[in-house]
Amino acid sequence: MPNFVRPAALALTAALVLTGCGAEVTSQDGEGGDAEARGGHYPVTIENCGRKQSFDKAPQRVVTNDVGITEIMFALGLEDHMAGYVMPDDRGDLTSVPWKGGYQKTKWLSKKTINKEMVLDARADLVFAGWNYGFNEGEGFSPAELKRVGIDSYLLSESCRNGRGKARGVMAPLEALYTDLRNLGRIFDVEDRAEALVATFRKQVAEAQAKALKGADRPRVFLYDDGQDKPLTSGLYAGPHDIITKAGGDHVMKDLKDSWATVGWETVVERDPEVIVINDYGDTTAEQKRKFLKSYPPLADVSAVKNDRIVVLDYAELVESPRNPAAIASLAADLRNLAP
């Protein structure tokens, strides 16, 4: 991934310097005075992917998996509650992002796939991951397995399964981000920080939408993650749907009721995207992905390929993360610049 931060992300840095500690809240039965007499904030109960969870105190040794999840913790100022993070080393330059201080203070536990032994060695009391963002029954690493060894879990809301097999997604992508910020705000008694972040992000998105293309000017947009035989792309419930839509594009896979899924190239050709967004990560570089798209014969007459309207966004901007609002502003500018 390229070693740069987009101007929108840099502008966000100042907005994310938040102050304050945990907000005073009422108890679960609504009696604020009684809650204060019992020590204030705890116990708290939240709902995560349809499951109610109660916490008697804030977890102190959280292990996170992957960049977006890790940066949600950093955006809330919770690095002191972390035992470390697990992340491959293809997630770009982490030294110039708004949350570089969190990376400097927190231990990088492993660049390999997260597993039970890893989090046990870290003496974790909570693992923040998601389905296909670390949790995978086939690998023996799931919330149920962790519960058996006394470790709590919090699931990334973008990854919630929706009851159609292992399909994921139960809410709009940005609402998933806001839901996780608010839930974690309650769990760690930093609700004021969570609400400030949500307000900042909503304002940033609204400002980007005000400048975005509208109506008939909205181009058809396809998200290309990876894959040559069949492309991996974003459906209705993954971050790119809201990023594309709110940036002024018409997401051509909006009828795919999943988060990240594989489709056929014939579907892409039929829907004729006018812009393709490349997800930049992994062993295949963005330039290699661009060259493949430009040279793959079935795509030769697709408008985006024919007119060379291909945009690159970083992985951390496209999965659920605090970088999503900045990505909307960045893509909105790109779509305006690419408009005929």
TrEMBL record:
<keyword id="KW-0732">Signal</keyword>
<feature type="signal peptide">
    <location>
        <begin position="1"/>
        <end position="23"/>
    </location>
</feature>
<comment type="similarity">
    <text>Belongs to the bacterial solute-binding protein 8 family.</text>
</comment>
<protein>
    <submittedName>
        <fullName>ABC transporter substrate-binding protein</fullName>
    </submittedName>
</protein>
<feature type="domain" description="Fe/B12 periplasmic-binding">
    <location>
        <begin position="61"/>
        <end position="340"/>
    </location>
</feature>
<dbReference type="InterPro" id="IPR002491">
    <property type="entry name" value="ABC_transptr_periplasmic_BD"/>
</dbReference>
<dbReference type="Pfam" id="PF01497">
    <property type="entry name" value="Peripla_BP_2"/>
</dbReference>
<dbReference type="InterPro" id="IPR050902">
    <property type="entry name" value="ABC_Transporter_SBP"/>
</dbReference>
